[in-house]
Write a structure and sequence with these properties.
Layout: H1 18-25, H2 28-34, H3 42-52, E1 71-73, E2 76-78, E3 82-84, H4 97-107, E4 111-114, H5 122-129, E5 138-142, H6 148-161, E6 166-169, E7 174-177, E8 180-183, H7 195-199, H8 205-213, E9 219-224, H9 227-235, E10 240-243, H10 257-268, E11 274-276, H11 283-291, E12 296-299, H12 301-332
Parallel strand pairs: 3-4, 3-12, 4-5, 5-6, 6-9, 9-10, 10-11, 11-12
Antiparallel strand pairs: 1-2, 7-8
Helix pairs in contact: 1-12, 4-5, 4-12, 9-10, 11-12
Length: 351
């Protein structure tokens, strides 16, 4: 198996620099794909603005010498509460694509959710990192296919490859393209396909119950924003929920995830673990998400920017900077563990 070539990271590059550098290096069409948003981009902008609007209340003189990012998910301790979000066709950003991202994530103890539309075969990706003792979780994104038989075939392939959970994306059952309306997770279909025809294939809660009954893997639903949907997920005993608006790429004017997360946390309590993505671009964003009720956080576009700039080294650097910022922010807020973050961190303490 070939190993991605190491590339040099420009001197003095910080997290905020990667986006502009990636745009310089990336093919314009690839840049347009990865930076796309629905409609006028209201939700995409709101995602970032909502995290920025939250204040952290630091605490001083607390013992934090043993600060540790270890996070427990599904009964297993992982090195970090950070995961790479599922992002398709990463070879558009760099020839090494998902393989580089996976190797970098494993080296930093960060989890990976491999896209259902990976440009590198899933078996090759997981083979490269599964044996790394210091890696994070290895999960695989799933879209419902045309018919349950095709979906089950994909599930069995994911199980056989050795992935540890299924991340079912539920907020993009259909999507718009210049060729017409097409099912998410598939290639283009003839432009004659109408919205009504495509919606005949869209999954429902009955399909969620069917999937839970036909896999041994934990199932997480990605794309939950409404508290009532989170309650239904808990009722069906899914294993986790990822609060997400697809990075603002599906429904414009959907709420920012920083606004949806606390409402969902209030609705389901401890019934199931919550994760979140959308507009998270710094270590302080991660800490705010943990305080609002997330058990772990998924990061997307910053990873693509790192990949485009310097392949595996760029991804590793981005993830290292995010982790370092998280640790520093925790220390300045007097926290030793990610699980210690709560709403008291975001408002003046009553003590």
């Amino acid at each position: 198996m070939s190993t991605p070539a190491l590339q040099r990271i420009p001197d003095g590059v910080g997290l905020a620099d990667y986006e502009a550098l990636a745009r310089e290096r990336m093919d314009p069409q690839a840049w347009a794909y990865f930076s796309a948003f629905a409609g006028k981009g209201i939700t995409a902008r709101a995602n970032v603005a909502a995290w920025d609007a939250i204040a952290l209340w630091p605490r001083v003189l607390r013992p934090v010498a043993d600060l540790d990012l270890t996070t427990v998910l599904f009964g297993r301790a992982w090195p970090s509460p950070l995961l790479v979000a599922p992002m398709a066709l990463q070879q558009l950003a760099h020839p090494d694509g998902e393989l580089a991202t996976a190797l970098a994530a494993a080296a930093q103890g960060v989890g990976l959710v491999l896209s259902a539309q990976s440009s590198v075969p899933m078996e090759k990706v997981i083979q490269a990192v599964r044996g790394d003792a210091g890696r994070g979780p290895l999960w695989h994104q799933l879209y419902f296919q045309e018919g349950r038989a095709a979906t089950l075939e994909q599930v069995r392939r994911v199980e056989a490859a050795g992935f540890e959970a299924l991340v079912l994306t539920v907020d993009a059952s259909v999507r718009a393209s210049r060729a017409g309306v097409v099912p998410a997770g598939t290639g283009a279909v003839p432009s004659s396909a109408s919205l009504r025809e495509v919606l005949q294939q869209a999954p429902t809660w009955d399909d969620i119950a069917w999937l839970r009954a036909h896999t041994r893997l934990p199932v997480l639903l990605k794309g939950i924003l409404h508290p009532q949907d989170a309650r239904e997920a808990a009722r069906l005993r899914v294993d986790g929920v990822i609060v997400s608006n697809h990075g603002g790429r599906t429904l414009d004017s959907a709420p920012a995830t920083a606004l949806a997360l606390p409402r969902i946390a209030e609705a389901v309590g401890d019934a199931l673990p919550l994760l979140v993505d959308g507009g998270i671009v710094s270590g302080t964003d991660i800490l705010k998400a943990l305080a609002l009720g997330a058990r772990a956080v998924l990061v997307g576009r910053p990873v693509i920017h790192g990949l485009a700039v310097a392949g595996a080294m760029g991804v590793a650097h981005v993830l290292r900077l995010l982790s370092d910022e998280l640790e520093l922010s925790m220390a300045q807020c007097g926290l030793r563990r990610p699980a210690d973050a709560d709403l008291d961190l975001l408002q003046a303490s009553s003590q």
